[in-house]
Amino acid sequence: MKLNKLLISAAALLCGAALSAQTASIHGYMDYTNFGLGQTFNTSSATDAWTYTSPSAEFGSFYNGRTELNVNVSAANFQFNTGVRLDASGGTWYNLYHVVGMENSDGDGYQTTPIHQMNMKVQFFNQQVSLYTGKFEEWNNGFIYNGWQLGGQFVRNVADRDNGQHFTGIEVTPYKVNGLRLMVGLPVIPGWGNGLQYGTSNQWKNLYKKVMFLGSYKLMKQNIVFNMGYRPGTYYTGVYAYDTADGATTNYFGEAFLQADLPALIPGVKLNTTYDFRYRKNTTVGKLATAHYFGISGNCTPVANLNLNFEDRLVYCDDHYVATNEKLLYNILGIGLTYNIKGKPYAIGLNTNVTYAQDANGTCYTGGDGQLSVGGSYADGYAMTTDWMTSAASAGSGAPGRYFGLYAYPYFQKNFNNGYFRAGLEIQYTNYHVTTTTQNVTYRIPAAFCFWF
Question: Could you give phi then psi for residue 328, rounded to 5 degrees?
């Protein structure tokens, strides 16, 4: 009896020690933006007459009322993360997430899931070595900095829904080289044998080609950070849209990038710059095709209570990169102004983008959504619209194209401790000219409710 009491007491002490040694946190994000009014106007040189849609209201932003909930658990040298993303109706957010490895070899397809991440991190050797494995979303482990105004860079993440969410890798941060971080990893897919294509994907004769290298070095005295990365191939392994053996064995493009974060180079101005290089073999013409991206962005406070963000991104896709016998020049300039009313939880602001593009044969922008019509597997993000607003329709093909867009969003904002309410007017004008000229004007009136917890 005494032995049982001693065992129970010891177990209680061990449980208490374990509980005290671990921490758990729950946090999330909610965006329930409503558009009280929206309308589009279109014209083309064929008729020179404007047509328009009926004014309408829309519930849910282009995020479709996203609700995100994440759970993080840390215990000693172990960290576990999981989370879900739901739409405005409580369903899977745009059906973007799938249970990779659970599909059948007879083509039944993926099971959808609201789980957008489930991964873990384990540290060794006094935190000098970290092992990462699992399912990630929009993740680059801090090796790619966002732009100050336009957000995510034109550089592929280490793991996300667009090029594959699963990743296993090792990060090294040696004490003897202060400021240095190195990481190497592979997109190892779960579910060996469930889907035949993943048996192929995980074979080392294919897997070693998908290795990713990333590095970061901070100059402590100068407060400058250099980030860099290289992947010899992009294979879309485990991506729903590429659910064939092709996604496991076909290299769509190689990519390398170099980034410099310069928060103190110019007094009062925080800067970062990014260069990205992509290359692929165009099998139709049998030539190596290349694409180049250079971006610069910054943040400053020119006068009291006024915050200024600015960013310019220039892209050049050489002959045959986006498509055979096509080339593309693309530029977007973004500016954001926010004036915080002194002593009050209110702000007024303005976001504006100017986009311009040229191509050789008029095939890059042929739809009314403003997205690239060709080269989606090799080039991404070079949109003529902001937040998926409607753009001008196809202006023909077979001749050099010229594309222009102007977007403005003046707004009023009420700030809270953990979020904000924002109301304003979004308006966008686009003009395409190839063999004809098409134009579009789109406006919408958003009421944005965004909260973090």
Answer: -145, 135
